[in-house]
């Protein structure tokens, strides 16, 4: 039976990117049906909200979604539509792999890092207020339960993938209670995985930044509270070519939403200019999630072949191809 996947084309360049995915995935031997669910600025006027209930219902029903970027329209009451969607569906794990790809100039070769970012707590819980006229306060929330589930997700998936080194990132020397709790819970969970990893260790976030810039190949899996994870995952995207090449996934107990890390880049919308790579790599990870590991490998091979030549790379990667030409090149290389 075909697997139905919710497809949110999104705003700006979103439809260009998801069209590319439909073409590439359509050329593979996979039994996937797309259920289109419109969200974002596109539906704001008609629905009165950028995140209609029908979109959430579709994701809840299908359990898997691929999402293009969503613009947060001004004055909606949402800090971010993307954060609202993650909260609503309790997608507590944000997984951000960084993998070196051929044809993309970067300072280091052979980067293969993966970040597990806690996606619901920390300073991103949004508990903020002003104090009188001249001060403001934001509350950092770290719970045992929230930390345990992201740590367990990271250990379980890393063990399955045969990864050998896992590092918790924190600032527990200063934030002894909040980051201290995150670090302690990580090491408690680690006791169940001692035989599965060669190294289980911790780094203070500032030192981690320096290490990632100077010796990124020493690291394998990083587990972070929300804010450090957000910052470090962009740093790691920079190590492999920038946001245009960075895939992401938001994972909960039952639901998984795959999406590129970048935004809706409205200036390139509908111009055959956008690079679909981050969305394609997100779709590739979705195929693995759905049990299509072999097809995902074929997709990766097709992508890498298309990236090798400047004629088939997009302009942001120093090539001359448009979204459609890059997509065609991948399909013919599958
Ligand atoms: P952006 O990622 O859309 O753009 C930043 C820069 O990168 C721009 O120069 C853009 O043209 C370029 N760029 C981004 N993706 C590209 C691609 N695939 N191909 C070629 N060039 C690309 O970030 P910005 O401008 O801060 O945000 C625009 C909108 O996107 C905002 O409304 C923001 O809220 C939303 N956004 C949505 C996200 C999501 O849906 N997960 C994530 C980040 C931003």
Q: End-to-end distance, in Å?
A: 24 Å
Poorly predicted spans: none
- State Rg: 20 Å
Characterize the biggest β-sheet: 10 strands, mixed
Instruction: Quickly name the level 1 CATH class of the largest domain.
Output: Alpha Beta
Bound molecules: 1,4-dihydronicotinamide adenine dinucleotide
Q: How does the overall form come out from the CA principal axes? A: globular
The assigned structural class equals: alpha/beta
Average pLDDT score: 95
How many H/I helices? 11
Q: Give the count of structural domains.
A: 2
What is the CATH topology descriptor of the largest domain? Isopropylmalate Dehydrogenase
Number of strands: 12
User: Architecture of the largest domain, according to CATH?
Assistant: 3-Layer(aba) Sandwich
Fraction of residues in H or I helices = 25-40%
By CATH's scheme, which homologous superfamily of the largest domain applies?
Isopropylmalate Dehydrogenase
Please give a handful of descriptors for the protein shown:
alpha/beta; single chain; Isopropylmalate Dehydrogenase; Rossmann fold; 10-stranded mixed sheet; binds 1,4-dihydronicotinamide adenine dinucleotide; two-stranded antiparallel sheet; 334 residues; 2 domains; 40% helix
List the topology elements.
Elements: E1 3-8, H1 14-26, E2 32-36, H2 41-47, H3 53-62, E3 64-67, H4 81-88, E4 93-99, E5 112-118, E6 128-131, E7 135-138, H5 144-160, E8 165-170, H6 178-190, E9 199-204, H7 205-214, E10 221-224, H8 226-239, E11 247-251, E12 256-260, H9 277-289, H10 293-308, H11 323-333
Parallel strand pairs: 1-2, 1-3, 3-12, 5-10, 8-9, 8-10
Antiparallel strand pairs: 4-5, 4-11, 6-7, 11-12
Helix pairs in contact: 1-9, 1-11, 5-6, 7-8, 9-10, 10-11
The structure holds 1,4-dihydronicotinamide adenine dinucleotide.
1,4-dihydronicotinamide adenine dinucleotide binds at residues 13, 69-72, 82, 243-244, 259, 262-265, 267-268, 274-275, 316.
